[in-house]
Design brief:
Layout: E1 11-16, E2 21-26, E3 29-30, H1 31-35, E4 42-43, H2 52-62, E5 77-83, H3 89-92, E6 94-100, E7 104-112, H4 130-133, E8 137-141, H5 142-157, H6 168-184
Antiparallel strand pairs: 1-2, 2-3, 4-5, 5-6, 6-7, 7-8
């Protein structure tokens, strides 16, 4: 597969205070704003609602370090928008296929991650489907891409990010105490 080598899109990172997430911004628009303009399902994989380890794993994948990732993902898939509630692959996350060279990073073929193409399906794509809303090919300068990821890492390093998942019993007890405490007031 021959890839375009001339960067044609810009990429940067910015803090999104509404979603409490680091958004990757492509040509002036956040990825989640492109694929989910109604804010119904998608959020950046770098959302503060996910633990720091998950955000760092996503960042490593953006850098090409595959490590411990979901077995449903191919080696070239990169999740660009995830389930707003849990980020779980089974909920429906939007991905692109990524190709990295020394000079450029190419994102192509937006698709629902972890799914197998069904050739029997001849459905016309819906105009509001995130696969249709996102550009089919984006080419970024490798230096600009790496700078955006460095900025993302800086945001993740800031205070306020959960460092670990709460213990199930502890979390349930805290929730129970929160609601029980309301009755006493």
């Amino acid at each position: 597969m021959e890839s375009p080598s001339t960067p044609s899109s810009s990429i940067a990172a910015r803090w999104n205070p509404t979603d409490q997430a680091v958004d990757l911004v492509i040509d002036g628009r956040a990825v989640v704003d492109i694929v989910d303009p109604q804010k119904q399902w998608g959020v950046s994989p770098f959302a503060r609602r996910f633990v720091r380890a998950a955000a760092l794993q996503a960042l490593a994948e953006y850098r090409g370090v595959l490590g411990d990732r979901d077995e449903k993902l191919s080696g070239t898939e990169l999740e660009i928008a995830v389930c707003r509630a849990c980020g779980d692959l089974g909920c429906g996350n939007l991905a692109v296929d990524v190709e990295r060279t020394a000079e450029a990073v190419v994102w192509r073929q937006p698709h629902w991650s972890g799914t197998v193409d069904d050739d029997d399906e001849d459905d016309e794509p819906d105009a509001n489907d995130p696969e249709s809303l996102f550009p089919q090919v984006l080419v970024f300068s490798r230096a600009e891409y790496d700078a955006a990821l460095a900025d993302t890492e800086w945001f993740i390093a800031q205070l306020g990010w959960s460092r670990a998942l709460p213990e199930a019993a502890g979390w349930l007890d805290r929730l129970r105490n929160r609601f029980t405490g309301l009755k006493d007031k």
